[in-house]
Amino acid sequence: MASLARPAANELHLWDVNASKFAVLLHNSDIAQPSVTNFGNGQLVNGGPDLDSSSAARILKGSLTTLGLLEPSPHTHKDGLPAVPRHPLPQFLLSSPRHSQAVHTVLEALGASSQLSDTFTFQDSADTFKFVPCAATDCTQLVNDRRELAPPSDARAAREVLVLPPGSHPPRDATPRFNFEQYFAQLGDHSSASDWGMGEVLVYGEAVSSTQTMLDKNPKLLTSLPTPIVSLASHQLAGRGRGANTWLSPEGCLQFSLLLRLPLSRLPAQRLVFVQYLFGLAVVRACKDERALGGNKGANVRLKWPNDIYLDLESGKKKIGGILVNTSFTGGQVEIIIGCGVNVSTPAPMASLSLLCPDAQLSSETILALILNKFESMWEMFVESRGSWAPFEEAYLDAWMHSDQSVTVATVSPPQQVRILGITADHGLLRTLPEKGAGDYIDLQPDGNSFDLMEGLIKAKK
Predict the structure, then answer these.
(1) What mean pLDDT, rounded, does the chain reach?
(2) Is residue 82 part of a domain?
(3) Are residues 389 and 414 in the same domain?
(4) Do residues 443 and 424 lie in contact, with contact meaning Cβ atoms separated by under 8 Å?
(5) Residue 83 domain flag
(6) How confident is the model at residue 450 (pLDDT cuts 50, 70, 90)?
(7) What is the reported pTM?
(8) Are residues 287 and 429 in the same domain?
(9) Which of 439, 298, 304 is nearest to 371 (CA)?
(10) Hey, is 246 helix, strand or coil?
(11) Burial, 370: exposed, middle or buried (Cβ in 10 Å; 0-12, 13-18, 19+)?
């Protein structure tokens, strides 16, 4: 690319190498409003003093594409969806129709005016959040503008959170990978008139760095948000698994984090280990629901200790999901972040729930609503009993894959062959018994140990 003439200070001339085509981006103070048009050979595009960065980016991109200096980008996915985002997109702060004022409650808890009329900035340790009031009719264009922009060079760039008027939800083309009307219909109403239930208030982004990191790396946000609240994404760009593992984010994967808070006087800290088991059981129960797979096919969804979700098929066992629980203690209470990823309809060769029911149209909206409904009722019982595992033990052992399984424990010296008996009721440890000779139980903590199904081996997690 070469400029054949020295442009004026307020002009950008783009030419191809043989000067057969040109486009000009002209910033002229005499032009009251910017004009964004399609590009053609020899076409002039004018930009006035109010030309915003997103319009300028579209102009420049169109110009370079017309000149053959930039390859056209694939704008649509093969299923008619937009191309998978490679950088974070704006998020939406949303609530169910029954609790339309809940968004105001969240804003007030963060220090903003409940009637948000201007951008509100919330700064935290890892991220800065910009809450932006947005009409439902405008959010599609705003999100699509962000699709076209390159990711900010500053890793600390603020996260945009769009706030719509009470009672309104983004149109389908603003959230093409998640249907909120369908989701809220499936979620139903299990809350009181004043308090919202699990899943009724959420922050959704089509593409975010990590639903879990947004909460547990921003302590001010974590302790300020009213609960329960869900952080949901269709794609994670830096999803997290257990330990140092990453969580891949293919199309058709449901991924979310649920924030809960309660005083330790209601749930002793030593009972928190059971939360990962409880949530895994909720996932299994959701899959068995008739609105998902039903009892027969859903029975093939099984749990691997301590926090993985598998399909148990004739062809073998295939992982389709996992659970990650983080806790934070402040002022006599505990914040619990439950992260979960489940492959609902991911394409082959990845395993997903759709393998069990290839003709059904399984949706992330339905599976999420079912998981949260099942877990909410279980959670209430769990907290009321101050963390008793007894009401859930039988169902959990029926859902996991390990009863009477023979494995090698490599975390003792010398390694021993043992039989798996269950989960201890006091501290949630994996209870095993040596197979040969007399010996005491060998109880293993979920944190720090890894279960290799293929090798039948329990070893220290690296």
Answers:
(1) 83
(2) no
(3) no
(4) yes
(5) no
(6) confident
(7) 0.82
(8) no
(9) 298
(10) strand
(11) buried
